[in-house]
Design a protein that fits this description.
The protein has 7 helices and 5 strands; from the N terminus they run βαβααβαβααβα. The chain is α/β, with parallel strands linked by helices. It binds shikimate-3-phosphate (S3P).
């Protein structure tokens, strides 16, 4: 594979799980933009949002995205807000095929609830309402950035991966 695979999409759409498995299967490295930010700052995503705010988080995120645009042979799982900045998308496009993972709001809520309190943006009373409003705003950004779209709502991990592999075969 001469291009990286970048996974984009809303929180809870399975980017990390899918990315990790896919990288193993293809013998590629696995990179998570969020993990790189945590590594660099020595702080959790929750702490960064709390102490420095979303704007600073987005700045760190853009820095990391710029760096990963130079990597090779990698599956890159991107934080859900990466697509909001067009230069992030441009950086990613240079070396990666962009797969958008989607899921229904219900499934997203279920998966996110399972993950606990790790998403500061969804640390609100009415999570469903927040998911819906964020999604409505972001949808055009996601669709514009994506080379391929996979709706994971009714798919098992293995099926998502098989879909990606099939689409990759068409790429080469
Ligand atoms: C965010 C998604 C999170 C993380 C941060 C902000 C977003 O990543 O980057 O909490 O704005 O959608 P995941 O999509 O991996 O949950």
């Amino acid at each position: 594979m001469n291009k990286n695979i970048a996974l984009i999409g809303f929180m809870g759409t399975g980017k990390s799980r899918v990315g990790r498995e896919l990288s193993k299967l293809l013998g590629m490295d696995f990179i998570e933009t969020d993990s790189l930010i945590v590594e660099r700052t020595g702080k959790s995503i929750v702490e960064i949002f709390k102490e420095a705010g979303e704007k600073e988080f987005r700045r760190l995120e853009s820095e990391v995205v710029k760096e990963v645009s130079n990597v090779k042979n990698s599956v890159i799982s991107c934080g859900g807000g990466v697509v909001l900045n067009s230069s992030n998308v441009e950086s990613l496009r240079k070396g990666s095929v962009l797969f958008l993972l989607t899921a229904s709001s219900e499934v997203i809520l279920e998966r996110i609830t399972r993950d606990g309190e790790s998403r500061p943006l969804l640390n609100v009373q009415d999570r469903m309402k927040k998911i819906d409003s964020l999604m409505e705003f972001r949808k055009p950004f996601y669709l514009k950035a994506a080379d391929h779209v996979i709706n994971t709502t009714n798919l098992e991990l293995e099926q998502v991966i098989n879909n990606i592999l099939e689409l990759l075969r068409e790429e080469v």
